[in-house]
Amino acid sequence: xxxxxxxxxxxxxxxxxxxxxxxxxxxxxxxxxxxxxxxxxxxxxxxxxxxxxxxxxxxxxxxxxxxxxxxxxxxxxxxxxxxxxxxxxxxxxxxxxxxxxxxxxxxxxxxxxxxxxxxxxxxxxxxxxxxxxxxxxxxxxxxxxxxxxxxxxxxxxxxxxxxxxxxxxxxxxxxxxxxxxxxxxxxxxxxxxxxxxxxxxxxxxxxxxxxxxxxxxxxxxxxxxxxxxxxxxxxxxxxxxxxxxxxxxxxxxxxxxxxxxxxxxxxxxxxxxxxxxxxxxxxxxxxxxxxxxxxxxxxxxxxxxxxxxxxxxxxxxxxxxxxx
Length: 324
Known about the structure:
Elements lengths: L25 H8 L4 E4 L6 H8 L4 E6 L2 H10 L1 H5 L3 E5 L16 E7 L4 H5 L27 H7 L2 H11 L5 H12 L7 H12 L5 H15 L2 H13 L2 E11 L2 H14 L21 E3 L9 H6 L7 E7 L1
Parallel strand pairs: 1-2, 1-4, 2-3, 4-5
Antiparallel strand pairs: 5-7, 6-7
Helix pairs in contact: 1-2, 7-8, 7-10, 8-9, 11-12
């Protein structure tokens, strides 16, 4: 998926790119998960990663996505693999994997999460993920039928302190309090309905010299809040770990520092044995036992060829962990 910032494709396409989406770090994902017997693609998108994995010897892929448009696009793309019994797709949220009866009893030799949003979601102005002029403030991953409030409703109703938290924690904005106050001031006169309303608040609070990088960062912060992405990821990590088969690998591509931090810390914790000094008579660290090992010593990032072809991959960070 992507970080949500503006971008375009240049140079030769990868074999798994489509007009719908260009999967980030697909070659690196194949190196980690290719040849697995059963992979869960928990963020199916346009099916690019699933196609790459099936092309490289994965026996079967199960795809999940909250977005019905993504499910339709991926299912059409992989219809032949589905007919051969190698691919199946279901609408659902990876953060609630244990609530999906269709895959309740499955254990996976590989699990992939590609966080963020797809190029198609950004490029479709009606979905409200972009800051292009006149776009609706929606940002719901599940589309307009999703039960959660959209971005406009969030901006119209959230407490000023909650807005400050969103802009500071999810958008790394040092002047988050000023921006939250500006949103509250403006919504007293008229509701937030389009991208222009949020862009206007950002410029009103942070100055007229703010530009696309600021808009991308702060729109991303609102999107993360609308979809409860960090809370969902924190809840999902141990559940996904427990759905791995022995020696199964969990691979996660993050685009936001908060996402990457959650993944890094979880993988480190799961890979750590008791850390008490060897001569200490009583364990005081909780008696940790490593559940597996971190495969990537540091985050894997896109190389210059990929970022030239797909600038939206520039913030992608891939980490992987393998169960015992």
